[in-house]
Design brief:
The chain is of the alpha/beta class and about 525 residues long. The chain has 14 helices and 26 strands. Helix 2 packs across helix 3 and helix 9 packs across helix 10.
């Protein structure tokens, strides 16, 4: 079933309810208007010769028109290719070179990509405005005509929802690349629908007004009948977004729910604290895409006193995986995180979908003929291993099959995805995170996982974030201080004595471009190597 079918019930039930609001332009679309607009897009794309399975590279700023175009593409069975947020022109050129698209939807600074990427010169050019350089997909005035002079798109069948099997490709997206080159993966219509349903259930989505920052969450919100507010801000660098303006727009539109990256929410909380303001209308704050440290959850509770604060653990390949309500974190849990237990991620969103298996030499590889083979090899409570996930919401493979060998475990009819994260279950069945498997330090003094250290130091006042790496056998801790704050290195060493730190560097911790919150371990290792050479 085409993933856009999930919107049909909402269109039928309340066609006049507002579906999308653009805070920058104050434009709105009802569910009925959204349905009609996406039908026109599907008709225009078909009229221009696009066929199911054709890929459309998106180099267009976030706007109401973009989402109409995106949903119209899905409706027509096309495959939007969504580059990582914050990707520069060079990254877009690499994306086009590795995965040549049939068409490009351009807008704003995205037009510059057409000039630098030779692979895009022969692609069909699409736009959401009238321009002599591209076809306007929102209107049918420039669509090809039949001999009798009528628009092809005027035929109702041209705007119909394409019948798609669960395995048919829906979206081409990319991992964050915080531990290497971003991987391309295809969400099928079945996986996209399962993720939308899982998010809706985990977050208890309803018809309230929600501020949307992520495409897959926006689909889940629309499926729940929500009014989705597009903030009209540049969120490509969430840590540097205009948080004061964001808060103002949230108050204006009485936003009840926000799902966003930790960096954006930390930015928002800081701006509200600075101005002595709160957001009493907020009922739910959910954050994911990067570790959500406990002090951030506490800060959000302070500026949104009526909101439930949730940390969502997941990945591009599998979302959501686990959920933690800040209200459920007990003082003993905070003490454990402060002293190196790792980061509490909460309870798996679906029973039987998450397991902890051995890593390194004892790693579970497969393939296995038995569906239950992986479960039988799971580790006992408190034993650290790699987190693997399975289920209908998990992307079964990458676009490049070569990436599957190290990340997929086949067990009978089931496919388990290796998250690359280390963690463990406690005796209550709660999941704890210890850090990236390929970032763990294993030397003569034993093994230490970086997230244990980073979580412990998140409780320190005056520290924005920290990261642990090794260089020439030495354990090097990088600390990014709050501007103007001084770091008491003796206190830091005492707090993380379990990690046996050799050197401390006070510097900005490199983070991923998408969320501005995940440690970019490739850049981190370059930083500590430069320090080692200089020392």
């Amino acid at each position: 079933m085409n993933v856009t079918e999930i919107l049909r019930a909402r269109v039928a039930a309340h066609p006049d309810r507002i579906a999308l609001v653009d805070a920058a332009t104050r434009r709105t679309l009802t569910y009925g208007e959204l349905d009609a607009g996406t039908a026109r897009v599907a008709a225009a794309l078909r009229a221009h010769g696009m066929r199911p399975g054709d890929t459309v590279l998106i180099v267009h700023p976030v706007s109401l028109d973009l989402y109409v175009a995106l949903i119209g593409m899905l409706r027509a069975g096309l495959v939007p290719a969504i580059p990582p947020p914050g990707a520069g022109l060079a990254a877009l050129a690499r994306c086009a070179r590795r995965h040549p698209p049939h068409a490009v939807l351009a807008g704003g600074i995205g037009w510059a990509a057409l000039a630098v990427a030779a692979e895009l010169r022969h692609a069909l050019r699409l736009s959401t405005i009238a321009t002599p350089f591209a076809y306007d997909v929102l209107r049918l005035h420039d669509a090809p005509r039949e001999r009798n002079g009528t628009h092809l798109g005027a035929d109702e069948k041209f705007g119909a929802i394409e019948a798609c099997g669960d395995d048919a490709p829906a979206m081409l997206t990319f991992t964050s690349g915080s531990t290497g080159e971003p991987k391309a993966l295809i969400r099928s219509h079945g996986v996209a629908r399962a993720q939308v349903e899982a998010l809706g259930k985990a977050l208890a989505l309803d018809g309230a007004t929600s501020l949307c920052t992520m495409p897959i969450v926006l689909l889940a919100e629309l499926a729940a009948g929500a009014t989705c507010l597009l903030p009209g801000l540049d969120l490509r660098r969430p840590a540097r977004a205009d948080a004061a303006l964001l808060a103002e727009r949230m108050r204006t539109y009485e936003v009840a729910r926000i799902v966003a990256s930790p960096a954006l929410l930390a930015n928002l909380a800081a701006a509200l604290r600075t101005h002595g303001q709160t957001l009493p209308a907020l009922r739910l704050i959910a954050s994911g895409g990067a570790p959500v440290m406990p002090p951030l959850a506490n800060a959000l509770c302070a500026v949104a006193p009526n909101a439930r604060v949730l940390a969502v653990y997941g990945s591009t390949e599998a979302e959501p995986i686990a959920l933690l309500d800040a209200a459920d974190v007990a003082p003993a849990d905070h003490d454990a995180m402060r002293t190196g237990a790792g980061l509490l991620a909460g309870v798996p969103c679906a029973r039987g979908t998450v397991a902890i298996v051995a890593t390194r030499r004892a790693a579970v590889h497969g393939p296995f003929p038995d569906d239950r083979a992986v479960e039988r090899q799971t580790l006992p409570p408190h034993a650290v291993g790699e987190i693997v996930v399975t289920g209908s919401h998990v992307v079964p493979n990458y676009l490049d099959s070569g990436d599957d060998a190290a990340t997929k475990i086949r067990a009978g009819a089931r496919i388990w995805h290796r998250t690359g994260d280390l963690g463990y279950f406690d005796e209550r069945g709660r999941l704890w995170l210890a850090g990236r498997a390929n970032a763990a330090i294993d030397d003569a003094r034993g093994t230490v996982e970086p997230l244990r250290v980073e979580c412990a130091l998140a409780y320190f006042a005056g520290i924005v974030r920290s990261a642990l790496a090794s260089a020439d056998g030495a354990r090097v801790l990088v600390i990014e201080p709050v501007p103007g704050a001084r770091i008491d290195e003796r206190a830091v060493r005492a707090a993380v004595a379990f990690a046996h730190i050799d050197h401390i560097i006070v510097a900005a911790v490199p983070v991923d471009p998408r969320h501005n919150a995940k440690v970019d371990y490739a850049a981190l290792h370059r930083l500590v190597r430069r320090y080692a050479r200089a020392a």
